[in-house]
Amino acid sequence: MKPQAFDYARPDSADEAVGLLADGGDDARILAGGQSLMAVLNLRLAQPSVLIDISRVPDLNYVKNDGKTLAIGAAATQGMVEWRGELAREVPLLAQAFPHISHFQIRNRGTVCGSIAHADPSAELPLALLALGGQVVLRSRRGRRVVEADDFFQGMLMTARAADELVEEVRYPLARSGERYAFEEFSGRHGDFAVCAVAAVVNQDGIRLAVGGVSDRPRLKRFGALAAADLDGAINDFAWELDAKDDHHASAKFRRQLVRHLGRTAIERARAQESK
């Protein structure tokens, strides 16, 4: 199939992009890397009347370490983040997650903010943002608002973004003293969407365990400083809370087992780093 006919706009600034989005409303879509949107358009699952191409907007094309977060602008590609020499030190969980994302060609074109805005429940970047307690900056003609990752992802491909808001920036917290991180994923083939992915953040006070690919959105559970003997039971309870469903990729039972196995593996791997 081919997309329905649409108008194409290429703004030169973030201000212009926000104005076009406000004028277009529900009939407008932001185009950055296009790696999620073009598939949706070709299947006519979305039929916008105008595409607003922000891929060449200079004031949205940045990756900045502000001392507390790694701030990533809407036009910055995944490759721009992945290939930072400092990434493993700045945001170790992101450095572990990137190799699981599709293939080189996709990461070379796809944007980080685009993946966050698309909110696929199997995607790695929303999962990492949730596990780390990151933020999403939304901008419209009415101004800016900052939404916690916990509140941003609301359901299958659904977010807290209003139709006239641009995902202007996402903020991944920098590595904090005493914290260790691990990312694990299972998929049918390398580069496929995750059947189940988990991200673990461990410190002396407890564990943050985020799971993707099992529920309608990435989900987060906070545990206290569990002893090893209590870990399996706690992860098992979480696996049942996710309300997994059968589909043509995997059964609900198999997905729950993946949560148990990958969850424990990730936590143990993060704890092992802590003991070094």
Read across the widest sheet, the strand sequence of neighbours is: 4-5-10-6-7
Q: What's the pLDDT, averaged over the residues?
A: 93
Q: Helical region count? A: 11
Number of strands: 14
Largest sheet: 5 strands, antiparallel
Low-confidence stretches: none
What string, H for helix and E for strand, traces the elements in order?
Answer: EHEHEEEHHHHHHEEHEEEEEEEHH
Query: Could you estimate the helical fraction of the residues in percent?
Result: 25-40%
Provide the gyration radius in Å.
19 Å
Assembly context of the chains: single chain
Structural classification: alpha+beta
Beta fraction of the residues? 25-35%
C-alpha geometry: globular
Give the termini distance in whole angstroms: 54 Å
How would you summarize what this structure contains?
The protein has 11 helices and 14 strands. It is an alpha+beta fold and 276 residues long. The chain has a 5-stranded antiparallel beta sheet.
What can you see in these coordinates?
The mean pLDDT is 93. The chain is of the alpha+beta class and 276 residues long. Helices cover 34% and strands 26% of the residues. Helix 10 (228-241) packs antiparallel against helix 11. The longest helix has 23 residues, at 252-274. The strands form 4 sheets. A 5-stranded antiparallel β-sheet has the order 4-5-10-6-7. Strands 11-12-13-14 form a 4-stranded antiparallel β-sheet, sandwiched between helices. The protein has helices spanning 14-24, 37-42, 78-82, 87-90, 92-97, 104-109, 112-118, 124-132, 149-152, 228-241, 252-274; strands at residues 7-9, 28-31, 50-53, 63-65, 69-73, 135-140, 143-148, 153-155, 158-159, 166-173, 180-186, 196-203, 206-212, 219-223. The radius of gyration is 19 Å and the shape is globular. The chain contains 11 helices and 14 strands. A hairpin with a 2-residue loop joins strand 8 and strand 9 (158-159). The protein starts with 6 loop residues before the first strand and ends with a helix.
